[in-house]
Amino acid sequence: MEFKIAVMEIKLYAPWVHSLKEKRMVVKSLLGKIRSRYAVSAAETGLQDVHQTAVIGIAAIAAHSAQADSMMDDILAFVESSTEAEILSVDREMR
Fold first, then answer.
1. In 1-95, which ranges are E strands?
2. What is the pTM of this model?
């Protein structure tokens, strides 16, 4: 059995966020939308004590590289359209 594991880390900047509670609401909403729309694991993976910056980690299993790339492209486009936060960086890896 062979499959691919796609991993993506998205760093977001939300300048209007002024508290960790407000950040949690934004991140929790986005993670819920990602999880419900795609069959992936998603979590806040870094900078959890910084008010205006969030790091989201996403992992998925796919049958082949093209399917995994397509899924990650779709998720990235969804994140861009689902939040007002600016995407600072995106790191992707295929295993």
1. 4-13, 41-46, 53-62, 86-94
2. 0.88
